[in-house]
Each structure stands twice: as structure tokens, then as C-alpha cells.
Amino acid sequence: MKELKTNCAQCPYHWSERLCNTPEGKGLASCPTLHKTKLLEKCMKEYDDPDVLEFARNASIQEAEGYERLPGNNFKPIKPRIVEVIEFAKKMKYKRLGFVFCEGLAGEAKIVEKILSGKNFDVVSVVCKAGRTPKETIGIKDEEKILPGTLEAMCNPIYQAYIVNEEKVDFNIIMGVCVGHDSLLIKYLEAPVTVLAVKDRLLGHNPLAAIYSDYYAYIK
């Protein structure tokens, strides 16, 4: 019998009625909470590692601290992501942070670095164009450049990763790295990583704006 594909994104039930949130809950026929119990048991053994357990514990505490509790079992968010990143890093007692960013957000990067340094972190910041390696090195043709006829340095996420790895950072923060480049960056980073902001050139680096509007209907 062919195993059903997990598809939590299409679960039709309200979060308060889902099997993943309540023992009396409901789920799709493919619900992993119901059908992947052995995999869950295997997964939970990873938390036997004290470092993993401490990381997960502080992440969960940080999640709860991001809300203000209101009467009637209600709550509301109270912190922007940069504050949560700083608080989590302090909970984990990290001292040296890797800050890996895109050249297109150089202005924002200067502000973020100042904030992080002002919170007594030792910050290693690396821009995507570090190394000034021509795009031709990876087989890019002139007509495939942003500005044909010019010397364009390639984004080099592997080099960015190598730099922060060599400088022994405790934790990495990514900001605005391009689609695909971010994948390589995460692959090669040795220390844990979080994302402060993602690249969306059209929507002010707020990709969900396309989902919250009718724009998604035009995506082909």
C-alpha cells in the first residue's frame, strides 16, 4: 500500500481542533501525528543531546515571551524579530555572532550591526560580494548578467560561510541573501543559523505581501 503524502498545509480544521494540538482533535488521512509515530520516537531521541535540548528549550521560551497574555485566554505579539533574535542569543550565552547579508541591504546591515554590537555581541559581518570573484567563474554569460558588458562579482555564499566558520562564530544571522544563495549559505554554515529577513526585491523584503494580496493569483 502506497504511503500517503504528508500535507499539513491543506488541513481543513481550525488549529484548536487539530490532532497536533489536542488529543481529541481531527486530521487528514495523512496526518503525521497519527501515522508517523515511529518517526516521532526516533526524532525525540535527538533531544537526549544536552546541547540540542537546551537550544530547543530556549527557543520555546522565546516563543512564549513574544506574546503578552490577555484576559480570556487571549494573547498578542509584542516583539519584532530582531528583538527576539537578540534575546535568544543571550539566552544561549552566545558571544560572537556571524552576520551574513546581501549587498543590496548594506544600509540596513550597518544599522543591524550597530544594534547587535550595542548589545555587547562580537559581530563578524560578511557581504555577499566578498572576494570579488567574476561571475564568469561559475559559467555566467555576459547576457545573463544584471548589467551586460560590465564586470559583475558573483554572490559567494560559500565564501561567506567559510569566513564566519573560520572566525568561530557561535550563531549566524542571515539578512536578505538571494534565493538559492541562501540555500548554499545554510548548507555550508557550521554554527546554528537564523534568518532576520529574506530577499524580496519587489515587495520591500516582505514576501508574504504577495500572499496577503491578490498578487498570488497571477503567479505562473
Short account of what is shown:
The protein is an alpha/beta fold and 220 residues long.
Annotate the secondary structure layout.
Blueprint: H1 32-35, H2 37-44, H3 50-65, E1 67-70, E2 74-77, H4 81-91, E3 96-101, H5 106-118, E4 122-127, H6 157-166, E5 171-175, H7 181-188, E6 193-197, H8 209-212
Parallel strand pairs: 3-4, 3-5, 5-6
Antiparallel strand pairs: 1-2
Structural summary, described in words:
With 220 residues, the protein is α/β, with parallel strands linked by helices. It folds into two domains: 29-78, no CATH class; 93-220, Rossmann fold, CATH 3.40.50.2300. It is 34% helix and 14% strand. The protein contains eight helices and six strands; from the N terminus they run αααββαβαβαβαβα. The strands form two sheets. A four-stranded parallel sheet has the order 4-3-5-6, sandwiched between helices. Strands 1-2 form a two-stranded antiparallel ribbon. Helix 5 (106-118) links the parallel strand 3 (96-101) and strand 4 (122-127). The radius of gyration is 21 Å and the shape is globular.
Task: Write out key terms for the chains shown.
Rossmann fold, 220 residues, two-stranded antiparallel sheet, 14% strand, 8 helices, globular, 2 domains
Proportion in helices = 25-40%
- CATH homologous superfamily caption of the largest domain: Response regulator
Q: Which range does the strand content fall in?
A: 5-15%
Count of DSSP-assigned helices: 8
Instruction: Please identify the top-level CATH class of the largest domain.
Output: Alpha Beta
CATH architecture of the largest domain: 3-Layer(aba) Sandwich
Q: What's the N-to-C terminus distance?
A: 34 Å
